[in-house]
Every structure is written in C-alpha cells, then in structure tokens.
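Hey,

Quick one before I head out. I ran the complex with S-adenosylmethionine overnight. Inputs first:
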Amino acid sequence: MKNGASQRLAPAAGSGSPSEISHCSTNLNTSDLVTELRVDDSDVTTIEAMKDSGHSACENRPTAIDLFSGCGGLTLGLKLGGFRVIGAVDIDPLSIETYEANHDDVTVWTADIRDLEPSEIQSTLDLEPGDLDLVAGCPPCQGFSTMRTLNGSLQVEDPRNDLLLEVLRFVDALRPKAVMIENVPGLADDESFQVFCGRMKKAGYCGDQDVLNAAEYGVPQRRKRLIYVAGLRTEIPFAEPVEDKLTVKDAIGDLPKPGQSGDPIHDLSERRTPQVMRLIQRIPQDGGSRTDLPIEDQLECHKRCDGFKDVYGRMAWSEVAPTITSGCFNPSKGRFLHPEEHRAITMREAALLQGFPDSYKFPKATSKSSLAMMIGNALPPPFIAAHAKVIRNTLQLKGVTPSGDWENM
Ligand SMILES: C[S@@+](CC[C@H](N)C(=O)[O-])C[C@H]1O[C@@H](n2cnc3c(N)ncnc32)[C@H](O)[C@@H]1O
C-alpha cells in the first residue's frame, strides 16, 4: 500500500499514557533466555526456511512494525529472530522499492512519518492498542553522527533528530509490548534521546540502552551502535555476544571477480584517474594502508594531511571489515579497498559485509551511490536477529506473546 501525505503532526509527547510505572518486572536472567533460545531454535527461521515455508508458517509469530524501514535490514533481522513484520514506513521511494522486492508480505507506507497517523496503520492492519508485540525503528542517524562533529560543534543541530520523537506517537497509539531503537552511539548524548527515554518511562516502559559492536553478533564488520530496548512493565536484557567472529574472507572470499558475475550489483564498473590507480596498485595486499608507502608514492593531498589514515586502505582477509558507510564505494572515504584486487568493494560485497544474504535483491538500474546509501544505512540483519530473539523469548517467558494479557502484568 502506498500512502500519500496527509496533514503534518507534532509528536504526541507521551501524552495520554498510563501513569508512571511503579516497577519493572526483572525476574529473568540471560541464562533463562539462553536455555529458552536453545529450545526455540527449531522455529527461529533462516532465510532458506523462510523461503521454503512461505509466509503462512509465520502466522503464529509475534508481530512487529518497522519505522524508517529503509531497504529492510531491520525487517530481515526481525524475521530471522522469529517476528512477523506486518507494517513498514519509509519516505524514500528507492528504499521502499528494494524493501518490497524482498518483503512482499509486509504492508508498506511510502510516507514522511510526520504525516502518517498511527490510526491509519491501526485500521489498515486491524490493530487494537496492545495487539502489537514490537515497534522497532532506526531513525535517520546523520544528525547524531560523531563524524559530523569533527567539522564543527559538539552538539549537532539537525532536524532529523526530532524524528526519534515521532516514534512516541506510534508507541502511544499502538501500546506495543516492546520497543527497539537502534542508532549511532552519539544519540546517547542528544537531548532528544533523553526526552525520548523520559517519555517512554512515563508511558510504562522499562528501557535500557547499550553500545554494542555488531562484530560480536555474527556480522563480519566492526559497527558500534546504540541499541535501546524496552518492555511494557518488563525489562528486556541484551543479547549475549556469540563466540566466533566472522571475517572478511568468510563473507566475500568466495565471490567471483566482478565484471561478468551475472549479479548486477557486483558487476557495476568503477573509474579512477591513472594517478589514483597507481596509488591503489601500490597499497600492500591484505590490510595494507597508504601510510605503508614511501612519502613520494602518496597523493599530494595526503602528504599534507596526517589524519584519516584509513582512506585508501585495504581490508584484511582475517579480520572484520570496517564500518560499512554510505561512502563504501569510494576508497577516498575509508578502508574500502578489496584485500587483493585493485578496486573498492562492490555493492554486493558491501551488502554481504552488512550481513545480508547473497539472495537479497537490490535494484539493477540505479547508481552505486544510491545503493551504498541504502546498504550503508541498513542495520545488519544478524545483529538485529540476536536482539529480536531475546525480545521474543522474554515476552514468551512472561506469557505475553502473542496473545498474553499485558494489562495484568
Ligand atoms: C538509518 S536508515 C534505516 C535503515 C533501515 N532500518 C534498514 O535496516 O535498512 C533511516 C531511514 O529513514 C528514512 N527517513 C528519513 N526521513 C524520514 C521521514 N521523515 N519519514 C520516514 N522515513 C524517513 C530514510 O529514507 C532511511 O531509509
């Protein structure tokens, strides 16, 4: 479903919520959840199982909506963690096109979230307050990014920051059993996050946040992100890290050379000036940096600048990748060179390093920069899946999912 814009709304600011909570229920520890996860692993889905079973097998799963859904990284993680995603919202038509190509079982709204009434979602999805299990979302994070602060003030003024508060309107109306927000670590220092947490608490949610590294949750990439989880009158723990790390080699080591692989987003060509190509060819294989080169082999601009040592660096086969950003197609934006070949990573490689499966569909006829924007902004599905499983198991152990009575908790 595509939705046109309606009138613009101010955030509801947690109004109309139940009175302040007296306590959060905490009688769970992570070992309970780990045991429960083992028991539950049979029905925690894999991409293959999802494809084989079709969508009907998901009917009994707890439900979620994805606000700021982008190309669907969060949605995929929620599905892999055992949720049935029933609604998604994003303003960007290309992201929605990609989302729908991969998640045609979800009702989507192409809309500015500020113009979308929660009642529209409720009536379309037939949701009474308290029916939904999870509201999850990743508001645009550029406003909070500490990279942005390198050039200027510490407290970044950015209207996108206010989009976090839009989530409150949906929480107020839908009264989900749990809420999950993901963002860059800088969000924790932003005033809007303090306001958000205060209003969530007032609305009866027990929230907690931590900065976690996706590399510790089965993602072949170093990516530190703030994750906020809250349960309605119940605490929800964070997922435990997994023991084995995946490496760049695990993720992209067996891909064919780009050019004629048959995968359009692996085959997009790149053009470099002869000067830059000479530099790239000299960077040592498997983790080398421009700083490994004698000064006379470096670009003039690098001779004058001591910072940004990762630019024109190669990834190392046996390590995790650096954070995949929207600039990941451009070696001048970070350590985005292939470990051996004289090129930046392809968009398929970027998606795999974000933890997307190789079957994930992206539009063929679009630019590398648009693809990199969607892929770099996405949440790594395995990272989200780990947290989604813990949320699902916590709600299940409490007997509130899918049809439990949260009013009486
Ligand atoms: C960090 S990305 C979300 C990534 C996504 N959760 C994923 O895992 O792929 C933020 C998204 O917010 C969307 N967005 C920005 N402003 C918006 C608005 N006013 N209303 C709805 N979506 C918006 C952007 O188009 C972008 O896709």
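The longest strand covers residues 205-213.

Talk tomorrow,
K.
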